[in-house]
Amino acid sequence: MRFLSRPHLIAGVVFLALALYPLINPWQPYPQAVLLMMFLLAIQASSWNIISGYAGYVSLGHSMFLGLGSYTAAIIALHTGLNPLWVAPIGGVTAVVVAVLAGSVVLRTRGHAFVIITIALLLSAQILAINLSGLTNGSDGITLELPFWNADFQNIPFYYAFLFLLALTVLFSGWIARTKFGTGLIAIREDEGKAAAIGVNTTIFKILAYACSSFFIGVAGGVYAYYQTFLNPVGAFAILGSVLIVLSALVGGRGTLYGPVLGAFIISLVNEGATVYGGNTQTRVLILGLILVAVVLFLPAGLLPTFQGWWRKRHPVSTEYTDQAGALAHTITVRERVPSPSGAGPLLEVRGVTKRFGGLTAVDGADLTVERGSITALIGPNGSGKTTLFNLITGNMQADAGTIAFAGKPIEKLPPWSRGHLGLGRTFQVTRLFKDMTVLQNVVAPLPDGKLRTMFADAVSGAEASRARDLLDVVGLGAFAAQKAGALSYGQQKLVELAQVLMLEPQLILLDEPAGGVNPSLVGRITSVIRELNRAGVTFLVVEHNIPLVLELCDPIYVFARGTCIASGPPSRIRSDQVVLDAYLGDDWRPGATAVERSLDAHA
Amino acid sequence: MAQFVQAVTLGVLIGGIYALMASGLTLIFGVLRIINIAQGAFLILVATFTWWMWRAIGIDPILAAFITTPLMGALGWVLYRFVVVRIRGQAPSMSVLLTFGIALVIEGFLNVVTGNRFKSATPSYFEESFRVGDILLPKAQVYGFLAAVAVLGVLYLVLTRTWTGRAIRATSQNPSAAALVGIGATSTAALAFALGSASAGVGGSILSVLYPFFPASHYDWISRLLGIVVLGGMGSLPGALVGALVLGLAETLTATYGGLQWSTLVFYLVIMAVLLVRPQGLFGARLREDAA
After folding, report:
1. What are φ and ψ of residue A323, in 5° steps?
2. Domain shared by A91 and A199, yes or no
3. Which of B87, B105, B274, B278 to mutate to test the interface with A (most CBs of A within 10 A)?
4. Which CATH number does the domain housing residue A306 bear?
5. Alpha-carbon distance A402 to A185, whole Å?
6. Residue B58 backbone dihedrals phi, psi, to 5 degrees
7. In chain A, how many domains are there?
8. Smallest CA–CA separation between A187 and chain B, in Å?
9. In the listed set A311, A338, A372, which residue is the last one of a domain according to the structure?
10. What SS3 state is found at A542?
11. What is the mean predicted confidence (pLDDT) over B124-129?
């Protein structure tokens, strides 16, 4: 906790010093101008960090928003006679509108289209600014009036305007990082498919993050245009501006709150030094390029995270191992979903679902019914389509044919997060925790519904965090809350994933091999958690290879082979079903048969 | 009508050249999952070198490809072996940033060595044309197109008919399985990077005749090439061909009927429209992600 508050303390002191600087040293225009450019770059880097640091979607054209803000404020000022300073916020609005429009097109899928489109957008904006000369005055650019204040004040008002905007940007970014929205963004960066499975509407989250990362740059653009009193397409939409932004965030540490600001201050000074001592713009590009390559190769995490890692090594915090005794003593409370889907009929109904991968039919017209309040098992040999069926039910994949109904509602067309919001949770065969997030963050991340209030709920303290702590205590890992999830053992990660899915307040939990790779005492813990939850009203669908466990825990049991259900019923029937035994163990599984073959071999 | 046919013919010629340039990018992405932002800078680097050889020694710019292609292949191999390989296994965004840095280094280097002004190689046939009926085919475009098609053909043969090609394709589909059957991941990756860079050797030499360029032009080029790759579907070679033809046609048709200044913008609009309907691009496939 002390370590957490220390960066904020330092940031506060730096802010105060910067706020007082013009009062102490008012007649030095040059250092003020240098500091002012540092603030401007820090505003941009800190904003960039929201989409590219938190959410991990790198934008290489982020300086576009500065140009958009500049042009918006300048054009409005030119036509209305208003001072650019007062209309600067409208520049922020323009930036947000463009971000939302572009984001809605390129952020719907996972992958690399985004980074490419950001470059194209920047160049397109430049082309538009050159060619829409009626609006922008083309390549000649727009000249604005001089500042309205007395020349004795020099650029001090601009200094404070940028410092104020920087403070707002950092507070905004810090607030985002504290909310479940921020946790969701980091979840997207770590594992987008998993994020969708725990109720994160990845499309909306990414578009929103892009919009959030554009607003303050747009506002700053308006102020910047007035500061320069002149703007043209080549200057306003310079790709070198984007280079400086990316470099700043990278040097300081992307994904951290203060890293981009620290990096911006450093890069701004380097840039100034290169301009003053390095000769011309040409050498500046070379120097910045070399720095970028060097940072990626030798300091990929950035200064701040590297320093934090070093600090942790010097000041280790001891943790206990899994608190099995404590966990066993803990009782589980299930938070009631409002409104709870009620009514008759089975909770989950799968009818005729088919999924093909090219020529391979992984699931072939499968039928499956999960009754309310049951612990239903799904067993079958490897490759029989169990996990694929899970993926179809939770929406990680779309079925080629068939229907899936949850509490009577067809869900086969819904995205994964909507199914999560309905009360469908899952764990994965190989755990998919967000390894760079803490255990607590992992458990806080799930969103039980799609409401904005849930999205912007506090994730660090308050109701959500204490609920997450409770769930961690349930699985006996409360002591690990502050550890990185990647540092935990495999079995512990299974338990964290179980706590994570409970955060979703699910009606139905799909467990993919809950006991796989877990030691016997933990298996006992997991089964007792499943039983307790089941008693509290949660339904389960379990894939598991540990047959004794399945026979003891589950009823009914469905048996899958070659993508379809070959038998179902209570454990007593499945145990002795000839078809099941053949499918699972092969036709020659009987010891007698093998003995006969062996004797035949011997006689041959 | 003749104007339309003229525009379409030119569009196809330019599209073929774009296809060659984009093929290197898509090859590197397909095998290494690296978006090589430096591909545009490679083109300008080669164009500058070609221009210099043409000015200083009098080597024909398009024939210069015989020199620049192996040189770029070697540069790509060295770059991979000593620089790019160090970020293997890290988040894909790191490769974007690294190659972006390499692009800046090349741009800065060219700025310092050759200065920041427009250049263009103008051999004797620069302003001549073949005439087929009413249609004019500029000789430089035709030669460039033929060279591009030849190189694409060779690339196709290498990828489908040789052991190296099979190794590259195997690695692009499943690196760990390829490693298990005895394909060295690092050397295959280096080969793919070298091949991709070598294609910029031909592309850059052709570019030096067809387009005026200066060090910072690489942004224009990389953004066009990436547009082609996104349009066609990341990592798909047929996709890159189709994307390149779409770009070529969009450019010449807009230049003929709208105005030259809008041609790039129209292409970006086409990309956005395609992504709106098919977020994965024209030929992009969504594979199963659970069994990775």
Report:
1. -85, 80
2. yes
3. B105
4. 1.10.3470
5. 33
6. 85, 25
7. 2
8. 14
9. A311
10. strand
11. 78
Of A246, A278, A311, the residue at which a domain comes to its end is A311
Q: Region A525-544: what's the mean pLDDT?
A: 87
Higher pLDDT, A43 or B181: A43
A589 has pLDDT over 70: no
| DSSP assignment letter at A146 | P
Amino acid at A133: S
Q: Do the chains contact at B104 and A106, CB–CB below 8 Å? A: no
Residue A408 and residue A551 in one domain: yes
Write the residue in B100, B215, B279 that is nearest to A292 by C-beta: B100
The residue ranking higher by pLDDT, A157 or B126, is A157
Q: Rounded to whole angstroms, how far apart are CA atoms A35 and A58? A: 27
Helix (H/G/I), strand (E/B), else coil: A569: strand
Q: How far is B132 from chain A (nearest CA, A)?
A: 35
Cβ separation B261–A292 shorter than 8 A: no
Gap between the terminal Cα atoms of chain B: 52
pLDDT at A341 over 80: no
Distance from C-alpha of A31 to C-alpha of A14, rounded to nearest angstrom? 16
For testing contact with chain B, the best of A63, A296, A299 (most B CBs within 10 A) = A296
Interface predicted TM-score of the whole assembly (ipTM), two decimals: 0.89
Residues in A closer than 8 angstroms to B112, CB to CB, are: 282-283, 286
User: Residue A413 sits in a domain of what CATH number?
Assistant: 3.40.50.300
Residue span of the structural domain in which A558 resides: 328-595
Q: Is residue A293 within 8 angstroms of chain B, CB to CB?
A: yes
- Note whether A452 contacts B: Cβ–Cβ < 8 A: no
* Pairing of the two strands A424-426 and B129-132: unpaired
**Beta-carbon separation of A289 and B91 below 8 A:** no
Q: Are residues A154 and A244 in the same domain?
A: yes
- Residue contact B105–A108, C-beta within 8 A: no
The answer to whether the Cβ–Cβ distance between A56 and B91 falls below 8 Å is yes
Identify whether residues A193 and A240 lie together within a single domain: yes
Contacts made by residues B262-267, CB under 8 angstroms, sequence distance 24+: B262/A127, B262/A131, B264/A123, B264/A124, B264/A127, B264/B220, B264/B224, B265/A124, B265/A127, B265/A128, B267/B224, B267/B227
**Same-domain check for residues A259 and A339:** no
Task: Label residue A84 by pLDDT band (50, 70, 90).
Answer: confident
**B96 and A119: CB-CB below 8 Å?**
no
A407 in any annotated domain: yes
A36 phi, psi to nearest 5 deg: -60, -40
Chain A residues inside the 8 Å CB shell of B220:
123
CB-closest option in B93, B116, B261 to A131: B261
Identify the band that residue B93 occupies on the pLDDT scale cut at 50, 70 and 90.
Answer: confident
Q: Which domains does chain B have, with CATH numbers?
A: 2-277 (1.10.3470)
CA pair distance A355, A476, nearest whole angstrom: 38
Give, as one character, the DSSP assignment of residue A425: E
Predicted confidence (pLDDT) at residue A422 exceeds the cutoff of 70: yes
Torsion over CA: A252, A254, A259, A265 (sign): positive
Residues A296 and A358 in one domain: no
Residue A142 lies in a domain: yes
Task: Decide if A496 is inside a domain.
Answer: yes
d(CA A149, CA A30): 19
Cβ-nearest to A288 among B104, B227, B281: B104
Calculate the alpha carbon distances from B219 to A280, A580, B209 in Å.
20, 62, 19
- Say if residue A269 is in the same domain as residue A357: no
Please tell me which residue of chain A has the smallest CA distance to B88.
A297
In a domain, A307, yes or no: yes
Cβ of B102 within 8 Å of Cβ of A56? The answer is no
| Shared-domain flag, residues A500 and A463 | yes
Distance from CA of A131 to the nearest CA of B (A): 7
